[in-house]
Specification:
heterodimer; A: 275 residues; mainly alpha; 77% helix; B: 326 residues; 6-stranded mixed beta sheet; 5-stranded antiparallel beta sheet; 19 strands; disordered C terminus
Protein backbone atom coordinates (compact mmCIF):
# COMPACT_ATOMS: atom_id res chain seq x y z
CA UNK A 1 0.00 0.00 0.00
CA UNK A 2 2.73 2.44 1.00
CA UNK A 3 4.68 1.48 -2.11
CA UNK A 4 1.69 2.16 -4.34
CA UNK A 5 1.09 5.54 -2.66
CA UNK A 6 4.75 6.35 -3.18
CA UNK A 7 4.48 5.57 -6.88
CA UNK A 8 1.38 7.67 -7.19
CA UNK A 9 3.06 10.66 -5.55
CA UNK A 10 6.14 10.22 -7.72
CA UNK A 11 4.00 10.25 -10.90
CA UNK A 12 1.88 13.19 -9.78
CA UNK A 13 4.87 15.11 -8.49
CA UNK A 14 6.73 14.61 -11.74
CA UNK A 15 3.76 15.86 -13.78
CA UNK A 16 3.10 18.75 -11.42
CA UNK A 17 6.70 19.90 -11.26
CA UNK A 18 7.48 19.57 -14.94
CA UNK A 19 4.14 20.37 -16.59
CA UNK A 20 1.43 21.84 -14.40
CA UNK A 21 3.55 24.28 -12.43
CA UNK A 22 5.24 26.13 -15.36
CA UNK A 23 1.99 26.23 -17.40
CA UNK A 24 0.05 27.42 -14.38
CA UNK A 25 2.66 30.10 -13.79
CA UNK A 26 2.06 31.46 -17.31
CA UNK A 27 -1.64 31.86 -16.54
CA UNK A 28 -0.87 33.51 -13.21
CA UNK A 29 1.69 35.93 -14.64
CA UNK A 30 -0.67 36.83 -17.52
CA UNK A 31 -3.40 38.06 -15.23
CA UNK A 32 -1.03 39.49 -12.61
CA UNK A 33 -1.88 43.10 -13.45
CA UNK A 34 -5.57 42.56 -14.08
CA UNK A 35 -7.58 42.15 -17.25
CA UNK A 36 -6.90 45.54 -18.85
CA UNK A 37 -3.37 44.94 -20.18
CA UNK A 38 -4.37 41.42 -21.27
CA UNK A 39 -7.31 42.76 -23.25
CA UNK A 40 -5.08 45.37 -24.90
CA UNK A 41 -2.44 42.83 -25.78
CA UNK A 42 -5.03 40.40 -27.17
CA UNK A 43 -6.86 42.95 -29.29
CA UNK A 44 -3.90 44.71 -30.86
CA UNK A 45 -4.09 44.15 -34.65
CA UNK A 46 -0.90 42.10 -34.89
CA UNK A 47 -2.01 39.72 -32.15
CA UNK A 48 -5.45 39.36 -33.71
CA UNK A 49 -3.90 38.62 -37.09
CA UNK A 50 -1.57 36.05 -35.54
CA UNK A 51 -4.53 34.32 -33.90
CA UNK A 52 -6.49 34.32 -37.18
CA UNK A 53 -3.48 32.98 -39.09
CA UNK A 54 -2.95 30.13 -36.61
CA UNK A 55 -6.61 29.12 -36.84
CA UNK A 56 -6.65 29.43 -40.65
CA UNK A 57 -3.55 27.26 -41.08
CA UNK A 58 -4.99 24.63 -38.74
CA UNK A 59 -8.32 24.71 -40.62
CA UNK A 60 -6.48 23.82 -43.85
CA UNK A 61 -3.73 21.53 -42.57
CA UNK A 62 -5.90 19.36 -40.28
CA UNK A 63 -8.55 18.32 -42.87
CA UNK A 64 -5.79 17.73 -45.44
CA UNK A 65 -3.88 15.46 -43.09
CA UNK A 66 -7.07 13.72 -41.94
CA UNK A 67 -8.06 12.72 -45.47
CA UNK A 68 -4.51 11.78 -46.41
CA UNK A 69 -4.02 9.97 -43.08
CA UNK A 70 -7.08 7.73 -43.47
CA UNK A 71 -6.27 6.92 -47.12
CA UNK A 72 -2.65 6.23 -46.23
CA UNK A 73 -3.67 3.99 -43.29
CA UNK A 74 -5.98 2.03 -45.63
CA UNK A 75 -3.11 1.50 -48.04
CA UNK A 76 -0.73 0.43 -45.26
CA UNK A 77 -3.19 -2.02 -43.69
CA UNK A 78 -5.06 -3.41 -46.70
CA UNK A 79 -2.65 -3.32 -49.63
CA UNK A 80 0.30 -5.53 -50.38
CA UNK A 81 2.97 -4.08 -52.60
CA UNK A 82 6.71 -3.68 -52.86
CA UNK A 83 7.91 -0.53 -51.16
CA UNK A 84 5.27 -0.61 -48.43
CA UNK A 85 8.03 -0.63 -45.80
CA UNK A 86 9.39 2.51 -47.42
CA UNK A 87 5.97 4.21 -47.31
CA UNK A 88 5.64 3.23 -43.66
CA UNK A 89 9.06 4.72 -42.87
CA UNK A 90 8.36 7.89 -44.89
CA UNK A 91 5.20 8.58 -42.87
CA UNK A 92 7.33 8.70 -39.72
CA UNK A 93 9.89 11.08 -41.25
CA UNK A 94 8.28 14.22 -39.73
CA UNK A 95 8.61 12.58 -36.28
CA UNK A 96 12.27 11.88 -36.82
CA UNK A 97 13.33 15.17 -38.41
CA UNK A 98 13.70 18.36 -36.44
CA UNK A 99 11.12 20.92 -37.66
CA UNK A 100 13.95 23.34 -38.41
CA UNK A 101 15.33 20.90 -41.00
CA UNK A 102 11.84 20.53 -42.49
CA UNK A 103 11.62 24.32 -42.78
CA UNK A 104 15.02 24.47 -44.45
CA UNK A 105 14.10 21.67 -46.86
CA UNK A 106 10.93 23.48 -47.91
CA UNK A 107 12.95 26.68 -48.29
CA UNK A 108 15.42 24.91 -50.60
CA UNK A 109 12.62 23.68 -52.85
CA UNK A 110 10.23 26.63 -52.91
CA UNK A 111 12.34 29.78 -52.35
CA UNK A 112 12.78 32.17 -55.29
CA UNK A 113 16.25 30.73 -55.79
CA UNK A 114 15.15 27.15 -55.07
CA UNK A 115 14.48 24.23 -57.45
CA UNK A 116 10.87 24.89 -58.00
CA UNK A 117 10.30 28.31 -56.46
CA UNK A 118 11.50 30.36 -59.44
CA UNK A 119 8.97 28.75 -61.76
CA UNK A 120 6.19 29.23 -59.20
CA UNK A 121 7.07 32.92 -58.69
CA UNK A 122 7.02 33.43 -62.48
CA UNK A 123 3.46 32.11 -62.39
CA UNK A 124 2.48 34.46 -59.60
CA UNK A 125 2.62 32.01 -56.71
CA UNK A 126 4.76 32.94 -53.75
CA UNK A 127 5.32 30.09 -51.32
CA UNK A 128 8.18 31.12 -49.09
CA UNK A 129 7.56 34.07 -46.72
CA UNK A 130 3.85 33.66 -47.48
CA UNK A 131 0.83 31.64 -46.39
CA UNK A 132 1.30 28.66 -48.80
CA UNK A 133 4.73 27.88 -47.34
CA UNK A 134 3.41 28.07 -43.78
CA UNK A 135 0.57 25.70 -44.65
CA UNK A 136 3.00 23.30 -46.35
CA UNK A 137 5.32 23.34 -43.33
CA UNK A 138 2.42 22.72 -40.92
CA UNK A 139 1.05 19.85 -43.03
CA UNK A 140 4.55 18.35 -43.15
CA UNK A 141 5.18 18.39 -39.39
CA UNK A 142 1.70 17.18 -38.40
CA UNK A 143 1.34 14.48 -41.06
CA UNK A 144 1.97 11.23 -39.14
CA UNK A 145 -0.62 11.51 -36.35
CA UNK A 146 -3.82 10.44 -38.12
CA UNK A 147 -1.97 7.64 -39.95
CA UNK A 148 -0.39 6.32 -36.77
CA UNK A 149 -3.63 6.45 -34.74
CA UNK A 150 -5.75 4.90 -37.53
CA UNK A 151 -3.51 2.00 -38.58
CA UNK A 152 -3.88 -0.10 -35.39
CA UNK A 153 -7.67 0.41 -35.21
CA UNK A 154 -8.07 -0.47 -38.87
CA UNK A 155 -5.95 -3.57 -38.38
CA UNK A 156 -8.03 -4.63 -35.38
CA UNK A 157 -11.46 -4.36 -37.06
CA UNK A 158 -10.28 -6.44 -40.02
CA UNK A 159 -12.25 -6.65 -43.26
CA UNK A 160 -15.23 -8.80 -42.25
CA UNK A 161 -17.62 -5.95 -41.44
CA UNK A 162 -16.84 -4.35 -44.78
CA UNK A 163 -17.30 -7.66 -46.61
CA UNK A 164 -20.59 -8.19 -44.81
CA UNK A 165 -21.71 -4.75 -46.04
CA UNK A 166 -20.76 -5.68 -49.62
CA UNK A 167 -22.78 -8.88 -49.55
CA UNK A 168 -25.71 -6.83 -48.21
CA UNK A 169 -25.56 -4.68 -51.33
CA UNK A 170 -23.43 -1.70 -50.22
CA UNK A 171 -21.01 -0.30 -52.78
CA UNK A 172 -17.36 -0.09 -51.63
CA UNK A 173 -17.79 3.64 -51.01
CA UNK A 174 -21.05 3.22 -49.06
CA UNK A 175 -19.49 0.38 -47.07
CA UNK A 176 -16.54 2.61 -46.20
CA UNK A 177 -18.62 5.57 -45.04
CA UNK A 178 -21.35 3.62 -43.24
CA UNK A 179 -19.38 0.75 -41.76
CA UNK A 180 -15.59 1.19 -41.79
CA UNK A 181 -15.36 4.89 -40.94
CA UNK A 182 -17.73 4.66 -37.94
CA UNK A 183 -15.75 1.66 -36.71
CA UNK A 184 -12.42 3.53 -36.80
CA UNK A 185 -13.76 6.94 -35.81
CA UNK A 186 -12.13 7.11 -32.37
CA UNK A 187 -8.71 6.35 -33.78
CA UNK A 188 -9.23 9.03 -36.42
CA UNK A 189 -10.59 11.52 -33.86
CA UNK A 190 -7.62 11.05 -31.57
CA UNK A 191 -5.35 11.52 -34.57
CA UNK A 192 -7.20 14.75 -35.43
CA UNK A 193 -6.78 16.08 -31.90
CA UNK A 194 -3.05 15.39 -31.95
CA UNK A 195 -2.73 16.87 -35.45
CA UNK A 196 -4.57 20.01 -34.34
CA UNK A 197 -2.40 20.41 -31.26
CA UNK A 198 0.74 19.97 -33.34
CA UNK A 199 -0.49 22.36 -36.06
CA UNK A 200 -1.37 25.08 -33.56
CA UNK A 201 1.88 24.71 -31.66
CA UNK A 202 4.23 24.45 -34.64
CA UNK A 203 7.16 26.84 -34.41
CA UNK A 204 10.43 25.72 -35.98
CA UNK A 205 9.50 24.89 -39.57
CA UNK A 206 7.00 27.73 -39.85
CA UNK A 207 9.47 30.22 -38.41
CA UNK A 208 11.91 29.49 -41.26
CA UNK A 209 9.45 29.55 -44.19
CA UNK A 210 7.37 32.48 -42.91
CA UNK A 211 9.99 35.07 -42.23
CA UNK A 212 7.90 36.14 -39.19
CA UNK A 213 6.59 39.40 -40.63
CA UNK A 214 4.36 40.89 -37.91
CA UNK A 215 0.79 41.39 -39.06
CA UNK A 216 1.41 39.31 -42.23
CA UNK A 217 3.14 35.97 -41.71
CA UNK A 218 3.24 35.76 -37.94
CA UNK A 219 1.37 32.92 -36.24
CA UNK A 220 0.62 32.89 -32.51
CA UNK A 221 3.73 30.89 -31.63
CA UNK A 222 5.92 33.26 -33.64
CA UNK A 223 4.12 36.19 -32.02
CA UNK A 224 4.98 34.83 -28.57
CA UNK A 225 8.64 34.72 -29.48
CA UNK A 226 8.65 38.22 -31.05
CA UNK A 227 6.95 39.74 -28.01
CA UNK A 228 9.24 37.88 -25.61
CA UNK A 229 12.33 39.11 -27.41
CA UNK A 230 10.89 42.65 -27.45
CA UNK A 231 10.48 42.51 -23.61
CA UNK A 232 6.66 42.75 -23.99
CA UNK A 233 6.02 40.02 -21.43
CA UNK A 234 2.28 40.68 -21.17
CA UNK A 235 1.98 40.30 -24.95
CA UNK A 236 3.96 37.03 -24.88
CA UNK A 237 1.94 35.63 -21.96
CA UNK A 238 -1.38 36.63 -23.48
CA UNK A 239 -0.59 34.89 -26.77
CA UNK A 240 0.55 31.83 -24.80
CA UNK A 241 -2.74 31.72 -22.96
CA UNK A 242 -4.59 31.96 -26.29
CA UNK A 243 -2.60 28.97 -27.56
CA UNK A 244 -3.43 27.00 -24.44
CA UNK A 245 -7.12 27.89 -24.79
CA UNK A 246 -7.15 26.71 -28.42
CA UNK A 247 -5.77 23.37 -27.28
CA UNK A 248 -8.37 23.18 -24.49
CA UNK A 249 -11.21 23.90 -26.95
CA UNK A 250 -9.98 21.04 -29.17
CA UNK A 251 -9.95 18.63 -26.22
CA UNK A 252 -13.37 19.85 -25.08
CA UNK A 253 -14.89 19.36 -28.53
CA UNK A 254 -13.60 15.79 -28.58
CA UNK A 255 -15.02 15.05 -25.15
CA UNK A 256 -18.41 16.47 -26.18
CA UNK A 257 -18.42 14.37 -29.36
CA UNK A 258 -17.67 11.25 -27.33
CA UNK A 259 -20.60 11.90 -25.02
CA UNK A 260 -23.01 11.81 -27.94
CA UNK A 261 -22.12 8.23 -28.89
CA UNK A 262 -24.46 5.44 -27.81
CA UNK A 263 -23.77 3.67 -24.54
CA UNK A 264 -23.71 0.22 -26.04
CA UNK A 265 -20.92 1.15 -28.33
CA UNK A 266 -18.39 1.49 -25.54
CA UNK A 267 -16.29 -1.43 -26.73
CA UNK A 268 -15.44 0.04 -30.10
CA UNK A 269 -11.75 -0.61 -30.78
CA UNK A 270 -10.71 3.04 -30.85
CA UNK A 271 -11.51 3.43 -27.18
CA UNK A 272 -8.31 1.70 -26.14
CA UNK A 273 -6.27 4.56 -27.52
CA UNK A 274 -8.25 7.12 -25.57
CA UNK A 275 -8.38 5.65 -22.13
CA UNK B 1 -29.37 -26.08 -59.69
CA UNK B 2 -29.16 -23.11 -57.33
CA UNK B 3 -25.37 -23.04 -57.44
CA UNK B 4 -23.14 -24.66 -60.06
CA UNK B 5 -19.41 -24.61 -59.44
CA UNK B 6 -17.39 -25.76 -62.45
CA UNK B 7 -13.68 -26.64 -62.39
CA UNK B 8 -12.83 -23.89 -59.91
CA UNK B 9 -9.21 -23.43 -58.84
CA UNK B 10 -7.87 -20.83 -56.42
CA UNK B 11 -4.23 -20.36 -55.48
CA UNK B 12 -2.67 -18.15 -52.78
CA UNK B 13 0.94 -17.91 -53.91
CA UNK B 14 2.18 -21.49 -54.12
CA UNK B 15 -0.65 -22.85 -52.00
CA UNK B 16 -3.54 -24.37 -53.93
CA UNK B 17 -6.54 -23.63 -51.72
CA UNK B 18 -9.19 -24.97 -54.11
CA UNK B 19 -8.10 -27.54 -56.69
CA UNK B 20 -10.31 -28.02 -59.76
CA UNK B 21 -13.56 -28.37 -57.81
CA UNK B 22 -16.93 -28.99 -59.46
CA UNK B 23 -20.03 -29.05 -57.32
CA UNK B 24 -23.75 -28.66 -57.92
CA UNK B 25 -26.07 -27.50 -55.15
CA UNK B 26 -29.81 -28.09 -55.55
CA UNK B 27 -32.41 -25.36 -54.98
CA UNK B 28 -33.84 -25.35 -51.50
CA UNK B 29 -31.24 -27.77 -50.13
CA UNK B 30 -29.13 -27.32 -47.02
CA UNK B 31 -25.66 -28.45 -48.01
CA UNK B 32 -22.66 -28.71 -45.72
CA UNK B 33 -19.09 -28.28 -46.93
CA UNK B 34 -17.26 -30.46 -44.43
CA UNK B 35 -13.51 -30.68 -44.08
CA UNK B 36 -10.52 -30.10 -41.82
CA UNK B 37 -9.02 -26.60 -41.59
CA UNK B 38 -7.09 -25.71 -44.71
CA UNK B 39 -9.21 -28.01 -46.89
CA UNK B 40 -10.43 -25.06 -48.98
CA UNK B 41 -14.07 -25.13 -47.87
CA UNK B 42 -14.19 -21.50 -46.67
CA UNK B 43 -12.33 -20.30 -49.76
CA UNK B 44 -14.86 -22.10 -51.96
CA UNK B 45 -17.73 -20.45 -50.06
CA UNK B 46 -16.10 -17.03 -50.43
CA UNK B 47 -15.72 -17.66 -54.17
CA UNK B 48 -19.46 -18.35 -54.40
CA UNK B 49 -20.11 -15.09 -52.52
CA UNK B 50 -17.78 -13.11 -54.78
CA UNK B 51 -15.44 -12.23 -51.89
CA UNK B 52 -12.64 -14.16 -53.64
CA UNK B 53 -12.08 -14.54 -57.36
CA UNK B 54 -11.22 -17.96 -58.77
CA UNK B 55 -8.04 -18.28 -60.86
CA UNK B 56 -9.83 -20.78 -63.08
CA UNK B 57 -13.35 -22.09 -63.51
CA UNK B 58 -16.74 -20.45 -63.15
CA UNK B 59 -19.65 -20.17 -60.77
CA UNK B 60 -23.28 -19.73 -61.71
CA UNK B 61 -26.15 -18.90 -59.37
CA UNK B 62 -29.64 -19.88 -60.51
CA UNK B 63 -28.43 -20.49 -64.03
CA UNK B 64 -26.80 -17.09 -64.37
CA UNK B 65 -23.01 -16.85 -64.73
CA UNK B 66 -21.81 -15.03 -61.62
CA UNK B 67 -18.04 -15.46 -62.02
CA UNK B 68 -17.42 -11.80 -62.86
CA UNK B 69 -20.12 -10.31 -60.62
CA UNK B 70 -19.17 -8.36 -57.49
CA UNK B 71 -20.67 -9.58 -54.17
CA UNK B 72 -23.25 -6.75 -54.25
CA UNK B 73 -24.92 -8.17 -57.35
CA UNK B 74 -24.97 -11.88 -56.55
CA UNK B 75 -28.04 -11.97 -54.33
CA UNK B 76 -26.24 -13.92 -51.62
CA UNK B 77 -26.52 -13.63 -47.86
CA UNK B 78 -23.27 -14.31 -46.00
CA UNK B 79 -22.81 -15.10 -42.32
CA UNK B 80 -19.32 -14.97 -40.83
CA UNK B 81 -17.85 -17.09 -38.04
CA UNK B 82 -17.14 -14.03 -35.90
CA UNK B 83 -20.53 -12.40 -36.67
CA UNK B 84 -19.13 -9.30 -38.43
CA UNK B 85 -21.76 -7.32 -36.53
CA UNK B 86 -21.82 -3.57 -37.21
CA UNK B 87 -20.85 -2.58 -33.68
CA UNK B 88 -21.89 1.06 -33.95
CA UNK B 89 -25.45 0.16 -34.98
CA UNK B 90 -28.32 -1.19 -32.90
CA UNK B 91 -29.69 -4.65 -33.63
CA UNK B 92 -32.55 -3.03 -35.56
CA UNK B 93 -30.17 -0.96 -37.71
CA UNK B 94 -27.97 -3.97 -38.37
CA UNK B 95 -30.93 -5.95 -39.69
CA UNK B 96 -32.26 -2.95 -41.64
CA UNK B 97 -28.91 -2.26 -43.32
CA UNK B 98 -29.58 -4.03 -46.62
CA UNK B 99 -33.04 -2.46 -46.89
CA UNK B 100 -31.75 1.04 -46.15
CA UNK B 101 -29.06 0.61 -48.81
CA UNK B 102 -31.85 -0.24 -51.24
CA UNK B 103 -33.77 2.87 -50.11
CA UNK B 104 -36.97 0.97 -49.34
CA UNK B 105 -39.87 2.95 -47.83
CA UNK B 106 -39.67 3.49 -44.08
CA UNK B 107 -42.83 1.49 -43.23
CA UNK B 108 -41.69 -1.46 -45.30
CA UNK B 109 -38.33 -1.47 -43.51
CA UNK B 110 -40.02 -1.29 -40.11
CA UNK B 111 -42.38 -4.18 -40.88
CA UNK B 112 -39.74 -6.39 -42.48
CA UNK B 113 -37.23 -5.83 -39.65
CA UNK B 114 -39.94 -6.64 -37.08
CA UNK B 115 -40.79 -9.82 -38.95
CA UNK B 116 -37.12 -10.88 -39.17
CA UNK B 117 -36.47 -10.15 -35.50
CA UNK B 118 -39.43 -12.37 -34.60
CA UNK B 119 -38.07 -15.07 -36.89
CA UNK B 120 -34.71 -15.07 -35.08
CA UNK B 121 -36.34 -14.54 -31.66
CA UNK B 122 -34.73 -11.18 -30.92
CA UNK B 123 -37.90 -9.02 -30.81
CA UNK B 124 -37.19 -7.60 -27.37
CA UNK B 125 -33.59 -6.70 -28.16
CA UNK B 126 -34.04 -4.42 -31.18
CA UNK B 127 -32.53 -1.39 -29.43
CA UNK B 128 -29.55 -3.21 -27.98
CA UNK B 129 -26.07 -2.95 -29.44
CA UNK B 130 -24.12 -6.03 -30.56
CA UNK B 131 -21.78 -5.72 -27.55
CA UNK B 132 -24.80 -6.24 -25.28
CA UNK B 133 -25.73 -9.57 -26.90
CA UNK B 134 -24.45 -13.08 -26.28
CA UNK B 135 -22.58 -14.90 -29.04
CA UNK B 136 -25.63 -16.92 -30.02
CA UNK B 137 -27.81 -13.81 -30.16
CA UNK B 138 -25.23 -11.99 -32.27
CA UNK B 139 -25.15 -14.83 -34.75
CA UNK B 140 -28.95 -14.90 -34.98
CA UNK B 141 -28.86 -11.15 -35.60
CA UNK B 142 -26.29 -11.72 -38.36
CA UNK B 143 -28.62 -14.32 -39.91
CA UNK B 144 -31.59 -11.93 -39.82
CA UNK B 145 -29.39 -9.25 -41.40
CA UNK B 146 -28.34 -11.64 -44.18
CA UNK B 147 -31.97 -12.68 -44.80
CA UNK B 148 -33.28 -9.09 -44.96
CA UNK B 149 -32.59 -8.59 -48.66
CA UNK B 150 -34.22 -11.95 -49.50
CA UNK B 151 -31.09 -13.58 -50.88
CA UNK B 152 -31.34 -16.37 -53.43
CA UNK B 153 -28.58 -18.22 -51.62
CA UNK B 154 -27.55 -18.18 -47.96
CA UNK B 155 -23.89 -18.88 -47.22
CA UNK B 156 -22.78 -19.66 -43.66
CA UNK B 157 -19.05 -19.75 -42.91
CA UNK B 158 -18.51 -21.78 -39.71
CA UNK B 159 -21.49 -19.94 -38.21
CA UNK B 160 -21.39 -21.74 -34.87
CA UNK B 161 -17.61 -22.10 -34.64
CA UNK B 162 -17.13 -19.36 -32.04
CA UNK B 163 -19.92 -20.56 -29.73
CA UNK B 164 -19.79 -22.98 -26.83
CA UNK B 165 -20.97 -26.57 -27.27
CA UNK B 166 -24.44 -26.21 -25.74
CA UNK B 167 -25.38 -23.06 -27.66
CA UNK B 168 -23.99 -24.66 -30.81
CA UNK B 169 -26.35 -27.61 -30.47
CA UNK B 170 -29.35 -25.36 -29.81
CA UNK B 171 -28.57 -23.19 -32.82
CA UNK B 172 -28.16 -26.23 -35.07
CA UNK B 173 -31.68 -27.40 -34.28
CA UNK B 174 -32.92 -23.84 -34.66
CA UNK B 175 -31.22 -23.46 -38.05
CA UNK B 176 -32.82 -26.70 -39.23
CA UNK B 177 -36.28 -25.35 -38.27
CA UNK B 178 -35.50 -21.96 -39.82
CA UNK B 179 -34.59 -23.69 -43.07
CA UNK B 180 -37.95 -25.42 -43.10
CA UNK B 181 -39.69 -22.10 -42.49
CA UNK B 182 -37.59 -20.09 -44.96
CA UNK B 183 -36.47 -22.67 -47.51
CA UNK B 184 -33.69 -20.63 -49.12
CA UNK B 185 -30.81 -22.64 -50.61
CA UNK B 186 -28.20 -22.76 -47.85
CA UNK B 187 -24.53 -23.75 -47.85
CA UNK B 188 -22.89 -24.26 -44.48
CA UNK B 189 -19.14 -24.58 -43.99
CA UNK B 190 -18.06 -26.62 -40.99
CA UNK B 191 -15.18 -28.73 -39.71
CA UNK B 192 -17.49 -30.54 -37.30
CA UNK B 193 -18.78 -33.77 -38.87
CA UNK B 194 -21.49 -34.14 -36.24
CA UNK B 195 -22.78 -30.66 -37.09
CA UNK B 196 -22.78 -31.46 -40.81
CA UNK B 197 -24.64 -34.75 -40.29
CA UNK B 198 -27.10 -33.12 -37.91
CA UNK B 199 -28.06 -30.07 -39.97
CA UNK B 200 -27.46 -30.77 -43.65
CA UNK B 201 -29.45 -32.86 -46.10
CA UNK B 202 -26.37 -33.14 -48.32
CA UNK B 203 -22.70 -33.09 -47.38
CA UNK B 204 -19.66 -32.45 -49.56
CA UNK B 205 -16.48 -33.68 -47.88
CA UNK B 206 -13.43 -31.61 -48.75
CA UNK B 207 -9.75 -32.35 -48.26
CA UNK B 208 -6.66 -30.54 -49.58
CA UNK B 209 -8.69 -28.34 -51.91
CA UNK B 210 -10.68 -31.17 -53.50
CA UNK B 211 -14.16 -32.60 -52.99
CA UNK B 212 -13.67 -36.20 -51.88
CA UNK B 213 -17.31 -37.24 -51.88
CA UNK B 214 -20.79 -35.75 -52.02
CA UNK B 215 -23.90 -37.40 -50.72
CA UNK B 216 -26.52 -37.73 -48.05
CA UNK B 217 -25.09 -37.85 -44.52
CA UNK B 218 -26.05 -41.51 -44.12
CA UNK B 219 -24.49 -42.53 -47.46
CA UNK B 220 -21.20 -40.88 -46.55
CA UNK B 221 -21.17 -42.71 -43.25
CA UNK B 222 -22.15 -46.11 -44.62
CA UNK B 223 -20.52 -46.00 -48.02
CA UNK B 224 -17.46 -43.77 -47.75
CA UNK B 225 -15.66 -43.42 -51.08
CA UNK B 226 -12.17 -43.55 -49.66
CA UNK B 227 -10.04 -43.71 -46.52
CA UNK B 228 -10.22 -39.97 -45.92
CA UNK B 229 -14.02 -39.88 -45.88
CA UNK B 230 -14.08 -43.06 -43.77
CA UNK B 231 -11.81 -41.54 -41.13
CA UNK B 232 -13.21 -38.00 -41.22
CA UNK B 233 -16.92 -38.78 -41.21
CA UNK B 234 -17.42 -40.60 -37.93
CA UNK B 235 -14.91 -42.58 -35.85
CA UNK B 236 -12.93 -45.30 -37.62
CA UNK B 237 -9.98 -47.61 -36.99
CA UNK B 238 -7.66 -49.29 -39.34
CA UNK B 239 -7.18 -53.04 -38.92
CA UNK B 240 -4.68 -54.33 -41.45
CA UNK B 241 -6.11 -53.61 -44.91
CA UNK B 242 -9.58 -52.94 -43.58
CA UNK B 243 -11.27 -50.02 -41.85
CA UNK B 244 -13.85 -50.51 -39.15
CA UNK B 245 -16.31 -48.37 -37.19
CA UNK B 246 -16.28 -48.86 -33.38
CA UNK B 247 -19.92 -50.08 -33.37
CA UNK B 248 -19.09 -52.73 -36.00
CA UNK B 249 -16.77 -54.52 -33.59
CA UNK B 250 -18.49 -57.42 -31.82
CA UNK B 251 -17.28 -58.00 -28.26
CA UNK B 252 -17.75 -61.43 -26.60
CA UNK B 253 -16.59 -63.13 -23.48
CA UNK B 254 -15.81 -66.44 -25.27
CA UNK B 255 -13.68 -66.99 -28.40
CA UNK B 256 -15.67 -67.57 -31.58
CA UNK B 257 -13.87 -68.91 -34.68
CA UNK B 258 -12.31 -65.88 -36.27
CA UNK B 259 -12.26 -63.67 -33.18
CA UNK B 260 -9.15 -62.04 -31.78
CA UNK B 261 -8.15 -61.75 -28.13
CA UNK B 262 -8.04 -58.25 -26.64
CA UNK B 263 -7.56 -56.65 -23.26
CA UNK B 264 -9.89 -53.93 -22.01
CA UNK B 265 -7.69 -50.93 -21.24
CA UNK B 266 -10.36 -48.40 -20.34
CA UNK B 267 -14.16 -48.27 -20.15
CA UNK B 268 -15.79 -44.90 -20.93
CA UNK B 269 -19.46 -44.36 -20.09
CA UNK B 270 -21.13 -41.91 -22.49
CA UNK B 271 -24.69 -42.11 -21.24
CA UNK B 272 -26.52 -44.63 -23.41
CA UNK B 273 -23.33 -45.78 -25.06
CA UNK B 274 -20.22 -47.32 -23.60
CA UNK B 275 -16.86 -47.14 -25.30
CA UNK B 276 -14.31 -49.82 -24.54
CA UNK B 277 -10.73 -49.02 -25.43
CA UNK B 278 -9.00 -52.27 -26.28
CA UNK B 279 -5.44 -53.50 -26.85
CA UNK B 280 -5.19 -56.38 -29.34
CA UNK B 281 -2.71 -59.30 -29.02
CA UNK B 282 -0.29 -57.58 -31.39
CA UNK B 283 -0.40 -54.33 -29.36
CA UNK B 284 -2.66 -52.34 -31.72
CA UNK B 285 -5.34 -50.22 -30.10
CA UNK B 286 -8.97 -50.10 -31.21
CA UNK B 287 -12.16 -49.01 -29.54
CA UNK B 288 -15.50 -50.75 -29.53
CA UNK B 289 -18.82 -49.07 -29.01
CA UNK B 290 -21.57 -51.04 -27.27
CA UNK B 291 -24.85 -50.17 -25.60
CA UNK B 292 -25.07 -49.92 -21.83
CA UNK B 293 -27.01 -53.18 -21.63
CA UNK B 294 -24.41 -55.01 -23.67
CA UNK B 295 -21.67 -53.60 -21.47
CA UNK B 296 -23.52 -54.80 -18.36
CA UNK B 297 -23.97 -58.29 -19.82
CA UNK B 298 -20.27 -58.48 -20.70
CA UNK B 299 -19.41 -57.10 -17.24
CA UNK B 300 -16.84 -54.86 -18.98
CA UNK B 301 -14.06 -53.70 -16.69
CA UNK B 302 -10.48 -52.63 -17.04
CA UNK B 303 -7.95 -55.46 -17.40
CA UNK B 304 -10.59 -57.93 -18.61
CA UNK B 305 -9.80 -60.27 -21.54
CA UNK B 306 -12.46 -60.25 -24.30
CA UNK B 307 -12.75 -61.61 -27.83
CA UNK B 308 -13.55 -59.28 -30.71
CA UNK B 309 -14.63 -59.82 -34.29
CA UNK B 310 -15.46 -57.16 -36.86
CA UNK B 311 -19.04 -57.53 -38.11
CA UNK B 312 -18.49 -55.12 -41.00
CA UNK B 313 -15.36 -53.68 -42.57
CA UNK B 314 -14.55 -51.26 -45.36
CA UNK B 315 -11.68 -51.96 -47.73
CA UNK B 316 -10.40 -49.29 -50.06
CA UNK B 317 -8.08 -49.95 -52.97
CA UNK B 318 -4.99 -47.74 -53.18
CA UNK B 319 -6.56 -45.69 -55.99
CA UNK B 320 -9.47 -44.86 -53.67
CA UNK B 321 -12.13 -46.30 -56.05
CA UNK B 322 -14.57 -48.01 -55.67
CA UNK B 323 -15.43 -48.70 -52.03
CA UNK B 324 -15.62 -52.38 -51.04
CA UNK B 325 -17.86 -53.86 -48.39
CA UNK B 326 -17.54 -57.23 -46.74
Amino acid sequence: MAARLGLRFAALGYLAGLLAFPVGLVFWRTFEDGLGPVWNAATNPEALHALWLTVLIALIAVPANTIFGVVCALVIVRDRFHGKTLLNALVDLPFALSPVIIGLALYLVYARTGWFGGWLVDHGITVIFALPGMILATIFVSLPFVVRETVPVLREIGTEQEEAAWTLGASPLTAFFRVTLPAIRWGVTYGIVLTTARAIGEFGAVSIVSGSIAGRTETLTLHVQQRFQGFDLTGAYTASVELALLALITLLLMTLLRKETPVGDSDSPGDEALR
Amino acid sequence: MAIAIRRVTKRFGDFVAVDNVSLAIASGSLTALLGPSGSGKSTLLRIVAGLEHPDEGDVSIHGEDATGLPPQERGVGFVFQHYAAFKHMSVRDNVAFALKIRKRPREEIRDRVGELLRLVQLEGLANRYPSQLSGGQRQRMALARALAAEPRVLLLDEPFGALDARVRKELRAWLRRLHEEVPVTTVLVTHDQEEAMDVADRVAVMNEGRVEQTGKPRDLYEHPANEFVMSFVGPAHRLGEAWIRPHDLEVRQEPNGTSTEAMVERVVHLGFEVRAELVLEDGRRVSAQVTRNEADELELREGQIVFVRPSRTHVFSAVATPPGHS
